[in-house]
Write a structure and sequence with these properties.
The complex is a heterodimer of chains A (196) and B (529). With 196 residues, chain A is α+β, with helices and mostly antiparallel strands. Chain A is built from 5 helices and 4 strands, in the order αααββαββα. Chain A is 52% helix and 23% strand. The longest helix of chain A has 39 residues, at 40-78. The radius of gyration of chain A is 41 Å and the shape is rod-shaped. Helix content of chain B is 32%, strand content 22%. The chains are: A alpha+beta (196), B alpha+beta (529). Strand 3 (152-161) of chain A pairs antiparallel with strand 13 (360-368) of chain B, so a sheet runs across the interface.
Chain lengths: 196, 529
């Protein structure tokens, strides 16, 4: 009688409930997962996180600029010494050229010993020179050594006059000239590789 | 829908003598107008279905017009009950209990229905119980089944009263019946039944008297000219039509409609389809907007995450160096120490030359890392021959190792230790380590004969101050000053590009431009960018 309509609605309700439960079951026990519904807070959280990262990046960039300025200063200082990959023979040739430019002749000029580490950033090469030289040419040579770039410096120098020589300006010199070279570690540091 | 009323209604009834009556009524405001009528006497072989089909054809077939089938009123018994308000299920059980008291027949042999007429005393309801033989009900159903269209309600006219004709006496007995049952309004609601002998006994009752269908809100149309006897037959159909156009019809239909499912009208199909489509469209639009909103939000979150990832990747580039800063400082210190702790041979020679009297000759000289061993020869034994040398602040140590006299010649062996020429430079270096000052560079040295000076060795500038005395600067090598630097220090020293090894090429600006080019998600406020 009159309850027929009510029963139909009840069955419809049961059906909807079963369908809803089925959908829930699918989501819960399958790999689909419940769809994540984003809220305004999620976006704000992500944006504030990115802003914090950006602020940190700006800070790091300022530090990086400062580091680059420091690096530029150190590079200029490093120009006073030989680069890391300098061949020791190049130093000998450089001294030969300075002697040639000074017009000074000598008996021998050769590299002695091996490389020695001054510290983790610098090492040295030494070249020995000796011979009978004219005192004026020696003065020029000394000046050339003093003004050379990269720097060269004497580690030992001795002068002995030769009174029996035909010219009083001839003296005998013996000395060792030292050159500073960057180590590989310093070279890498100055190249900026470690900053990339 | 309770808020909507039909504008037209078709109703049918019949009587015990086989007379069938049908009307098509139309609502105009609060008035009801009878548009068409149909009456036909059925033959012995005619079925209800055939007769109703004829009536519908006569009145005009239109499936959108509600159809009420009233049947034969005389076959329906009604009884009014005052019951408390209750659910339909409980009411049905209560009515079954009442039926058992009212009739000796089995419940299975009776078809019953009810109509909630309205409120009664207190919180109670006036229920009009309708009972009829089950076989009669079956005949109604079978008759309607052959129509090929739906029926909205099967209801006898006696059930449709109130509020229709609520204040009037009504007689629904068909023409020719000996017994005329007059339904009189009762105090407190409901109807009582009174038997009248003649149609003219009660003049103003609906269904009796000279104008049986006269009613204030009813326009009879062609029935206005019908004879009283003819008009009486239409009374049940007219009552049903008025009821079908009333507000109560829609609400009552939910409660009392016991029309079999297969007979229910399929009306307003297009309207329902359009409504369903609209609902579906709304649901789809809402779902689309919701999904789009979720997608947009997810996209924004994704963009922010992606932006954050890019920033972090960029950040990793800057933090890759680790302890680069500390190592740069160490390297700078090592370079400065190597450069500034240099001891110059020419400088020592110049100092010797300028410090010694022109009568003194150097016979032999050896120099090793700033330590000099010099053999000097003088022709005369002048007491101040070595005075200037011993007082030179260029040398840190002065030691007369040996003094020999050979004839009129004197020979001196002197050990000298060249002062660290850049002691002041180291002081400046220390200042630079602590970040107090840049590198201060002394001006070029003027070659001049040193005046007599204090013998006191010094590790600082002659005036003992912390800052260099520019009027009395420390001495530098002869000629071009290799360490002459601009006043800005090493930091501003111009460097020929040719002297810069390839691996020391400038790194260039930090990739700030990359950061500026990096896309920022759209919803970021402009001022924050």
């Amino acid at each position: 009688m009159a309850s027929e309509t009510t029963s139909g609605r009840r069955y419809l309700l049961y059906g909807l409930l079963i369908v809803g439960l089925g959908i829930g079951y699918l989501f819960m026990f399958s790999n689909m997962g419940f769809p994540s519904i984003p809220f305004g807070g999620d976006i704000a959280s992500e944006s504030s996180r990115a802003e914090a990262t950006r602020a940190e990046l700006v800070k790091q960039q300022k530090l990086y600029r400062h580091r680059l300025e420091e690096l530029a200063q150190v590079r200029q200082l490093a120009s006073f010494v030989y680069p890391a990959d300098t061949d020791a023979n190049a130093i000998v040739r450089q001294i030969e050229k300075l002697a040639y430019d000074s017009g000074m002749s000598y008996s021998s000029l050769r590299r002695i010993g091996g490389r020695s580490e001054e510290n983790s950033f610098l090492r040295t090469e030494e070249v020995t020179i000796n011979g009978q030289v004219d005192i004026k040419q020696l003065a020029i040579f000394l000046k050339e050594i003093e003004n050379s770039r990269p720097l060269l410096e004497w580690s030992m120098f001795s002068v002995t006059p030769r009174p029996n020589q035909p010219s009083p300006n001839l003296i005998y010199i013996s000395g060792r000239i030292k050159a500073y070279l960057l180590t590989d570690e310093a070279g890498a540091l100055l190249s900026g590789e470690v900053m990339q | 829908m309770i808020f909507f009323r039909e504008k037209r209604c078709m109703s049918f009834s019949w009587d015990s003598q086989g007379g069938y009556y049908g009307v098509l009524a139309q609502r105009r405001g609060e008035r009801v107008a009878i548009r068409r009528t149909w009456h036909e006497q059925a033959s012995d072989q005619a079925t209800i279905s055939e007769m109703l089909a004829k009536g519908i054809a006569t009145l005009g077939e239109n499936r959108d017009i509600p159809l009420i089938v009233g049947g034969n009123v005389s076959r329906v018994f009604f009884h009014e009950l005052v019951l408390p308000a209750m659910s339909p299920e409980n009411l049905a059980r209560a009515l079954e209990f009442e039926i058992a008291k009212l009739t000796p027949s089995r419940l299975e042999d009776i078809h019953w229905n009810y109509r909630d007429v309205g409120p009664a005393e207190g919180e109670q309801r006036l229920i009009r119980l309708l009972c009829m033989p089950a076989d009669e009900w079956q005949r109604w159903i079978e008759g309607a089944s052959g129509l090929g269209r739906g029926v909205d309600v099967f209801m006898p006219a006696s059930a449709a009263l109130d509020p229709i004709l609520a204040e009037r006496q009504v007689c629904l007995s068909p023409e020719g019946d000996d017994a005329l049952y007059l339904l009189e309004p009762r105090d407190g609601g409901g109807r009582s039944v009174r038997l009248v002998k003649s149609p003219m006994e009660v003049q103003d009752a609906f269904g009796l008297g000279p104008r049986p269908l006269a009613c204030e809100r009813l326009t009879l149309g062609e029935l206005d000219s019908a004879s009283p006897e003819q008009a009486r037959g239409f009374a049940p159909a007219v009552v049903l039509a008025m009821y079908g156009l009333s507000r109560r019809f829609a609400s009552d239909r939910k409660q009392t409609a016991d029309v079999p499912r297969e007979l229910r009208p399929r009306r307003h199909g297009m309207l329902k389809a359009v409504a369903a489509m609209l609902v579906l469209y709304l649901i789809a639009a809402l779902a689309f907007m919701t999904i789009r909103s979720i997608h947009r939000s997810n996209r924004q979150i994704g963009e922010w995450k992606n932006y954050d990832r890019q920033l972090k990747a960029e950040l990793a580039r800057y933090s890759a160096g680790g302890d680069v800063d500390a190592r740069l400082v160490e390297l700078k210190t090592a370079l400065l120490q190597a450069i500034l702790s240099r001891k110059s041979v020419p400088d020592a020679l110049v100092e010797l030359t300028t410090s010694l009297d022109h009568r003194v000759f150097a016979r032999r000289l050896s120099w090793s890392d700033g330590k000099l061993n010099v053999y000097l020869t003088a022709k005369t034994d002048s007491p101040d021959t070595l005075l200037a040398l011993s007082q030179s602040d260029f040398f840190d140590k002065y030691t007369l190792v040996k003094r020999e006299s050979t004839g009129n010649m004197l020979t001196y062996q002197v050990d000298l230790e060249q002062k660290d020429y850049f002691t002041r430079g180291e002081e400046v270096l220390n200042q630079q380590r602590s970040g107090e000052a840049g590198i201060l560079v002394p001006p070029p040295r003027k070659i001049q004969k040193s005046p007599p000076r204090s013998r006191t060795p010094s590790t600082s500038f002659p005036d003992g101050g912390d800052l260099p005395d520019l009027d009395n600067p420390p001495r530098l090598p002869v000629g071009d000053d290799p360490f002459r630097l601009p006043s800005g220090g090493f930091g501003s020293l111009p460097l020929p590009p040719a002297q810069l090894p390839a691996e020391m090429a400038p790194l260039g600006d930090p990739p700030l431009s990359d950061l500026e080019k990096m896309p920022i998600p759209e919803d970021t406020p402009r001022e924050e960018r």
